[in-house]
Amino acid sequence: MAPLSDEEENYIRLALLLKGVSPRAVRTYFDKEFPPTYLPSTLNKNYNTLNGLFKKRILNQAQWNLLFPTNGTETTPGSDLARIKWYRNILAHHDSNTMATGDFNTAWRNVVDAVNRLGGLPMNQECLDLKVKILDQSNQEIMLEIKQSQEEMKELRRTMEIEHSTMRKILQICKILAVLCKQKTQALQKSDRSEEFP
Fold first, then answer.
1. Who wins on pLDDT, 102 or 61?
2. Average pLDDT over the chain, rounded to an integer
3. Helix, strand, or coil here: 20?
4. Angle, helix 101-119 to helix 77-92, in steps of 10 degrees
5. Residue 39's pLDDT is what?
6. pLDDT digits (tens, 9 = 90+) for 2-52
7. DZIP3-like HEPN domain location, by residue (predicted)?
């Protein structure tokens, strides 16, 4: 198997950070703030109330963002959670399995900073180790699976475009046939009328 390019390694490293380390940082933070035994019942009991308060503008946008984070540049726990989610979405919807080094470094720095703030210093070393980790065969197999899935998606898109194009042509032909049928019917009706009244 050919060695991975720097851009492919960047993609894998960021994927491992976002899917391996950052979720545990988020869990650590939530476990401290909201003990796991009470979180589901608290959220279930209060969601409609919180949503109602937000709609009535009793909760402001900043408070809502803390409960349901959006992307931003702040370093609050809510913004850190949003930052991790934002980068996960970027990775999930990335068109290729590569990432330019500049983009990787920016994303890595932002995610690691968020992980450190949410999960504490113990996770910092794990992030540092992951950045220089030698990607082994299992990581390369993951990469191959990603490449294969992307190729299958491209092929599916091409097939759908061809089918869509074919369906448009069939629709055009049907419209032409409908016009021809209507003209033929009108011609036959005229012919029948002319025979009735010689």
1. 102
2. 77
3. helix
4. 140
5. 52
6. 677 888 888 888 888 888 888 888 888 877 877 756 654 665 577 688 788
7. 73-141
Helix (H) or strand (E) holding 58, with range, is none
Distance, in Å, from the CA atom of 118 to the CA atom of 27, rounded to the nearest integer, reads 9
Amino acid found at 30: F
Going by C-alpha positions, the residue among 21, 137, 33, 19 that lies closest to residue 78 is: 33
Structure tokens at 64: 């809502």
For residues 175 and 170, what is the distance between their CA atoms, to the nearest angstrom? Answer: 9
pLDDT tens digits along 122-131: 888 888 888 8
CA atoms within 13 A on the CB side of 155: 6
Cα(152)–Cα(147) distance, rounded to whole angstroms?
9
* Residue range 159-185: mean pLDDT, rounded: 78
Angle at 136 between CA 121 and CA 133, to 5 degrees: 25
Whole-Å CA distances, 87 to 13, 105, 147, 180 = 13, 12, 20, 56
Question: What is the DSSP secondary structure assignment for residue 34, as one 8-state letter?
Answer: S
Rounded CA Rg of the chain: 29
Question: Distance (Å, rounded) from C-alpha 56 to C-alpha 59?
Answer: 8
Q: Dump pLDDT digits (tens) for 123-158.
A: 888 888 888 888 776 766 776 776 666 676 677 677
